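Work Package 3 (structural annotation) set out to generate three-dimensional models for the target panel prioritized at the project kickoff. During this period the team completed the workflow that converts sequence records into discrete structure tokens, so that structures can be stored uniformly alongside our sequence database. As a representative example, we reproduce one entry of 202 residues exactly as it appears in the project archive.
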Amino acid sequence: MTKETDFFARRLHSLLGIIPVGLFLVQHLVINHFATRGAESFNAASNFMGNLPFVLFLEWFVIYIPLMFHAFYGVYIAFTAKNNVQRYGTFRNWMFMLQRITGVILVVFIAWHIYQTRIQKALGVEVNYDMMADILASPFMLVFYIVGVLAATFHLSNGLWGFLTTWGFTQSPRSQKIVSYLTIIIFIVLSVIGLQAIFAFV
């Protein structure tokens, strides 16, 4: 891969991680959070999203294709990156390493989540509150989903810092420090929303 190709691929990878993949994650967490209001509220919100006009087009071109590029190129970055936290244990180096680790975790988690929901729906299984409650009745799956959600919220929040820096929005050390605090707040808020949704099914 040439330097020019790698440069543009990394820019595209960064962009797609926020738009549309990051925005979809936020929307997905909000829809799942309707479970805290009961089965009827969750089912209504889920059915609304599942019956949007051109839903297949939206799923493939706004979610799956951008997600696959971001995931596959992210795995390439994760396994070619040189982590040096033992030599330079700075905050940003740790965040860099954790970004790669959570990315690999998410490839496994998202693939399994898609199998349990979207593929099952294609096979005729109804995706609703009861389905998620059955999945999360397993202690193993409960832990798996908690880890997956926390990995996703961290990956998005920390990825937002990288996006703003990579694209030149935050160049000064002060602006990068401010965004670091902001992304920590975003991580906490999204994590609370995601975990509340999970435990609403239990």
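Residues 91-122 form the longest helix (32 residues).
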